[in-house]
Amino acid sequence: MVKRISHFGHLVANLAETLEMYQNNFGLKPVSVTSIGNETKNAMIPLGDLYIELIQPIDPNGLAAKALAARGEGLYHICFLVDNLEAEAEAFKAKGARVMPGLGDPPTVFIHPKSTKGVLMELWTEESRRKFLNRKS
pTM, whole model, 2 decimals? Predict the structure, then answer.
């Protein structure tokens, strides 16, 4: 069962410029800046009990780069916290949703936008969220 929103992903062309915009316009600063392999550079900005994840593609052939080229900068995904990642993934599959595994560690699951009226959805557990926030590049 979905507990609450963890974060939303903001797909950007330039992470440094976007971090500067968030700080200058909203007074918001990241608590972590890291990479997911050679796929993306990411920054997590706290906002109350949720986060804004800035995502800059670094692999021109990766999914995020393809999304940026097709749609431009903007909302990329919404991430929900769940108690049991595997059980939720199976429940979505049973309802006919297209479920995709995330990239590496921490464990995560994505639900394809064609299954969710156009928005990429991500599922995390509290443990996944803690691992991501504490990871080192």
Answer: 0.89
- Kind of pairing, strands 50-57 and 2-11? parallel
Q: How many residues does the chain have?
A: 137
Percent of the chain with pLDDT over 70: 98
Both structure tokens of 95: 């309802």
In degrees and rounded to multiples of 5, residue 65 shows phi and psi of -65, -40
Domain boundaries, position 16: 2-134
The HSE-up count of residue 136 (CA atoms within 13 Å, CB side) is 0
Q: Which of 109, 83, 106 is nearest to 36 (CA)?
A: 106
pLDDT for 103 equals 73
Pairing of strands 74-82, 2-11: antiparallel
Name residues whose C-beta falls within 8 Å of residue 55's C-beta, 6 or more positions apart in sequence: 9, 10, 11, 12, 40, 41, 42, 64, 76
Q: How far apart are CA 130 and CA 66, in angstroms?
A: 28
Q: How many domains would you assign to the chain?
A: 1
Residue type at 46?
P
